[in-house]
Amino acid sequence: MMQRADLYEHLVSEGDIALYKLDEWADKTPDKTFIHFGETGLQLSFAEVRQHSDALAAGLAALGVKKGDRVSVLTGNSLNATIAMFAAWRVGALYAPHNFNLRGQLLSYQINDTSPAVMITDTAFSDVLADIASELTIDQVVVFPADYGTASTGPEDMQLPGITCHTLSGVQQAGGALPDVTLDAYDPATIIYTSGTTGPAKGVVLGHRWINQYCFPLRVMDGDDEVIYCDLPLYHVGGVYALLTRALWKGNAVGLWNRFSPNDFWNRIAECRATSCLLMDVMVPWLMGAPERSDDRQNTLSKVHMQPLAASHHEVARRFGFDFVSCGFGQTESGSGFMALIDEFGDEPGTPPELYRSLPKAVMRERIQYLGGVVVDGAAGVPKGFIGNANPFLEAAIMDENDNPLPRGTVGEIAFRPRTPGALMQQYLNKPEATLKAWRNLWFHTGDAGVQDADGTYRFVDRMGGYFRVRGENVSSFEVESVISAHPSVRAVAAVPVPARVGSEDDIAVFVELSDGGDALTEEALRAWAEQQMPRYMLPAYVRFVDSLPVTPTNKVQKFVLKNQILEEIDTEAKAG
Question: pTM score, two decimals?
Answer without folding.
Answer: 0.86
